[in-house]
Task: structure prediction
Amino acid sequence: MQHPQPASPAANIAHWPERVDLAAAFRWTARLDMREAVLNHFSLALNAEGTRFLMNPNQMHFSRIRASDLLLLDAADPGVPDRPDAPDPTAWGLHGSIHRACPHHRCLMHVHSIHATVLASLADSTLPPIDQNSAIFFNRVVIDEGYGGLAFEAEGARCAGMLADPARKVMIMGNHGILVMGDSVADTFNRMYYFERAAETYIRALQTGRPLRVLSDEIAEKTAREIEAYPDQAERHLAELKAILDGEGSDYAS
Result:
């Protein structure tokens, strides 16, 4: 469903469709219980250089975020942390650093969802291809084993330095959580959703104590490529989630 430009006072807000998509992603992440209290952050680059981006306000619960609430920031502006509406410092450190250094990653979603974080807490955080969902991520993940504390500027820059490969769109942040990247809100949210599902399947499979049925590299890669070529799946996923919110009378698109 296409949302019209909002009525006053939000009538002249730029990047309205992108804001609506991002607000819907926040609402559904909260509904799926994949957020961490009033922390965790999503951002979306708006210019070719990747430096101008939308992000959630400082410590606002995902379940309350509206399209008009989103901050418009510039990673090239050193004055952002001094603004009256400055973003969370760790959000600025991580997302600002990545948008500044990695324009190929257009949308970033960082969460501490429980199963992905359990995976990030294991000595071996590899996600083996044991089912169709986990095969999606075969050879498409970066594992960060150098956690250095809260994601202020130095830690954000360190993480950004690991994300040069545009094909690797998930970072398992050891001892921390997960960072998912994509070309759009729909693409990134869909990837985040499926990674959490895959991590849950893997963790539950480990809990049985029985041997895992691991796919061959050939079939895992074939499956990943087939999913990547599957038409419009991410877009339809987000469109349906927005339709549910609309049917409930949600104010996310205001």
